[in-house]
Amino acid sequence: MSHAARVSALDGLLTDAGLDAVLATKDASIAYLTGFWGLQLERFFGVAVRRGGEGALIAPSLDRDSVGQAPTALEKSLYDAAKGNGLSTLYDTLDGAKRIGVEEDHLNFARAKALTDAGYELVPASDLIMELRAAKDAEEIAAVKYACTQIIAVYEELWADLKVGDSEADVNAKAAYALARRGGSHPEPHILFGAHAGDPHGSPGPRTLQPGDVVVADISAQFNGYWGDMTRCAHAGTPSDWAQRAWDVVKQAYDDAVAATKLGNTAKDVDAAQRRIIEAHPDLGACLHGAGHAIGTEIHEPPFLVASSDTPLREGMIFTVEPGIYDSQRGGIRLEDDILVGPENLSPYPLELRVLGG
């Protein structure tokens, strides 16, 4: 779908939503609608679309070259960030529209207050924008698949090089460089060893790989605007009884959750498929998170595969499916692929408890 078609589709939702206009401020939403990726920092960026489909991409003049190259038919409105905050440019773009849908989980308080003080009525519209972004078209699906092929290449480098004595810090730095070398933006490897792998969001540090350690290697990056996100596991030497049993349980949970990623199910159905397996084995560890999350122009975007979500799965949705089991003393096991509702695996790469140094 072209960017113009996306703007038109968004315009088509405004009347039923009772909105005069919508303001997108998330980087991922701006890029989805216009093809422009900016660096927001303290400056205002936004896409305003009025009922009828007119509007503008608003950005500081600092970004004039990249804005000029953006493949959008919307007006490109630049402002001087040294002299103003961009809101007067936004007001001109809104052109009399008063009831404005905003991404309430992103628009900051100061800007929301300024809009309200200027007489605009702000209405939550994150779900409206995500209604479009959630279902990916063929080009977007191919983009996620491409990102995964680059991550798979980095896994091959990781397994060829990883050895006892390597530090988490060094291994993660090498993986981040390998991703960047292939054109990856925001490379985010998260590779943890031993007991540290029992903390899903632990920070890689000086810990070195020791014989008998489990390795949880979560690798993600953005390529051409779309993310890939995968996790594989390894063991330094012959797997312990705990590691092998934990891996077998997580693999079963993974298989069941992937199979549940289909039309007719809801997000919580996918979570239930993995949770019933993981939670049946408390002797091996704990189930600390849901089954996964949608992925696209953001690495984590709704809907989320959690027990509280009744969101129906739709054609074109892509989710990470990533069951895991965690023990603070022995480590963790997690398996993750990017799954198109169907299901179809967009990140096909062998699922095995790889033995290092064997």
TrEMBL record:
Cleaved signal peptide residues: none
Creatinase N-terminal domain location: 6-134
SUPFAM superfamilies given in the database record: Creatinase/aminopeptidase, Creatinase/prolidase N-terminal domain
Gene3D superfamilies named among the record's database cross-references: Creatinase/methionine aminopeptidase superfamily (3.90.230.10), Creatinase/prolidase N-terminal domain (3.40.350.10)
Ranges where the Peptidase M24 domain occurs: 144-341
InterPro entries referenced in this protein's UniProt entry, alphabetically: Creatin/AminoP/Spt16_N (IPR029149), Creatinase/aminopeptidase-like (IPR036005), Creatinase_N (IPR000587), Pept_M24 (IPR000994), Pept_M24_MAP (IPR001714), Peptidase_M24B (IPR050659)
Record's protein name: Xaa-Pro peptidase family protein
